[in-house]
């Protein structure tokens, strides 16, 4: 069990730069998910940590020791690859014992450790089977047991569940969570499945094109995506929109309402707070209150969406940019991208509508998912908007229903284009 620290890792293959300065800290005993589209560099990071590839620059530290120059077998890292690569002619027990044999662990210790780890992964009964006699999920457990039996300081998993069908995959996710809890080993898992990352990890790291886009807890990653790319990858719908000063508020814009951020403020591009979030004294605040803005998006008009920026990492001041731009052009407004969480959208029959509705829409489709239902609507010829409702709240709605759409501003994020 050990903390893993990557500093400024970069790697090129020929003229192609695959990793562009990766910094990452994985606390001891925690579970980190590396998420990103195919080709973003996930496997390359694992391979460098495992010692299969060498970084061009940067350092790797595991539990206080540098891994520089150490061959893979001396890093004490357990690895499970996408293809389990079990030895077909060896039994389950012998597959698992393989790493212990090559480390010259005494035979009695081998037997004890193999039995323990078989128990941990729930395969106690199947020790004598050959891999071909196992299901995909069971083979995956063997691969996991083989990686864990050496009592690694670090466990690396490369898309370990991607070859499994949906049902088995769900079961194995729960198993992986339990095994991680029980073994307590620091774990880095590569996946391109955001649900898998959100359900398993303490920390999610989203990569794109060899760069970290955001590194956060699953909940923050979903609720506070740093950019439209992150929102999209997290499954949050986003649309082009226009933010302008509301007709009624227009007269109030001007001197006295603008608050400029302190010079010490460092603001992250795309760091946008929702209406429900608390503001610190030094946060940049846009020139008017959220109630004075209208966000026109997907054929709807929303008020109450905050566009200020909290302290962040880099230099852009999106909140103030938007605020200043709106002041300059209160009527035409500013072009933005708005992400809207499906669960922030509520839909109800037009005759039962609350007064706060953002606009009227038509139901295009309803997808029943058991306890929840996705109601897909469109307003005024705009794009489709997904609303995630409890099924019972969708009763009575059907294709073609006229509905009123309300959107909780706390589920909306806005970025200047
Ligand atoms: P991911 O696991 O996120 O899908 P990889 O780390 O496997 O991505 O690959 C990142 C990029 O590096 C891809 O463009 C891939 O083609 C390239 N790449 C990976 N390994 C090699 C290699 N050994 N030689 C040349 N290019 C490679
Ligand atoms: Mg890969």
Distance between the termini: 44 Å
Low-confidence stretches: 249-288, 309-318
Mean pLDDT, to the nearest integer, reads 83
Largest sheet properties: 6 strands, mixed
Radius of gyration: 26 Å
**Which percent band covers the strand fraction?**
25-35%
Ligand species: adenosine-5'-diphosphate, magnesium ion
Describe the structure in your own words.
The protein is an alpha+beta fold. It contains ten helices and 20 strands. It has helices at residues 42-50, 92-102, 107-120, 136-148, 166-183, 194-200, 218-223, 228-233, 318-328, 391-394; strands at residues 4-13, 16-26, 31-35, 57-62, 65-66, 77-80, 154-158, 186-191, 203-208, 211-216, 237-245, 293-297, 300-303, 334-340, 345-349, 359-368, 372-378, 385-390, 402-407, 412-416. The strands form four sheets. The protein has a six-stranded mixed sheet, sandwiched between helices. Strands 13-12-11-14-20 form a five-stranded antiparallel sheet. A five-stranded antiparallel sheet has the order 15-19-16-17-18. α2 crosses α3 (107-120). The longest helix has 18 residues, at 166-183. 41% of the residues are buried. Mean pLDDT is 83; it is low at 249-288 and 309-318. The protein binds adenosine-5'-diphosphate (ADP) and magnesium ion. Magnesium ion (MG) binds at residues 42-43, 190.
């Amino acid at each position: 069990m050990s903390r893993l620290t990557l500093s400024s890792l970069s790697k090129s293959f020929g003229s192609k730069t695959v990793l562009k300065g990766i910094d990452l800290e994985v606390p001891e005993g925690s579970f980190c998910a590396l998420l990103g589209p195919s080709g973003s560099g996930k496997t390359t990071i694992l391979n460098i940590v495992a010692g299969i590839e060498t970084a061009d620059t940067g350092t790797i530290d595991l539990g206080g020791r540098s891994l520089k120059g150490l061959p893979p077998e001396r890093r004490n890292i357990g690895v499970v690859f996408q293809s389990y690569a079990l030895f077909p002619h060896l039994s389950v027990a012998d597959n698992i014992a393989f790493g212990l044999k090559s480390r010259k662990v005494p035979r009695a210790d081998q037997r004890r450790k193999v039995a323990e780890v078989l128990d941990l992964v729930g395969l106690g009964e199947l020790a004598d089977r050959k891999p071909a006699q196992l299901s995909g999920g069971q083979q995956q457990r063997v691969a996991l047991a083989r990686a864990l039996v050496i009592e690694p300081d670090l466990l690396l998993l490369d898309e370990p569940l991607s070859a499994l069908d949906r049902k088995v995959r769900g079961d194995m996710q729960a198993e992986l969570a339990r095994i991680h809890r029980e073994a307590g080993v620091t774990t880095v898992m590569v996946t391109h499945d955001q649900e898998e990352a959100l359900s398993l990890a303490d920390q999610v790291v989203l990569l794109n094109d060899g760069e970290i886009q955001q590194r956060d807890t699953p909940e923050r990653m979903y609720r506070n995506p740093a950019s439209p790319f992150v929102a999209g990858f997290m499954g949050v719908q986003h649309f082009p929109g226009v933010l302008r000063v509301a007709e009624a508020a227009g007269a109030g814009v001007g001197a006295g309402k603008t608050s400029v951020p302190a010079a010490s403020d460092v603001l992250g591009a795309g760091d946008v707070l929702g209406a429900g979030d608390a503001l610190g004294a030094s946060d940049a605040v846009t020139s008017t209150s959220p109630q004075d803005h209208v966000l026109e998006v997907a054929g709807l008009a929303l008020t109450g969406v905050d566009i200020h920026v909290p302290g962040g990492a880099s230099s852009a001041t999106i909140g103030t940019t938007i605020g200043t731009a709106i002041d300059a052009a209160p009527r035409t407004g500013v072009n933005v991208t708005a992400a809207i969480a499906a669960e922030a959208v509520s839909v109800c029959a037009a005759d039962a509508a609350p007064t706060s509705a953002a606009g009227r829409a038509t139901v295009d489709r309803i997808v029943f998912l058991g306890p929840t239902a996705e109601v897909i609507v469109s307003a005024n010829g705009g794009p489709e908007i997904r609303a995630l409702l409890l099924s019972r709240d969708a009763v009575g709605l059907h294709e073609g229903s006229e509905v009123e759409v309300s959107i909780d501003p706390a589920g909306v994020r806005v970025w200047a284009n």
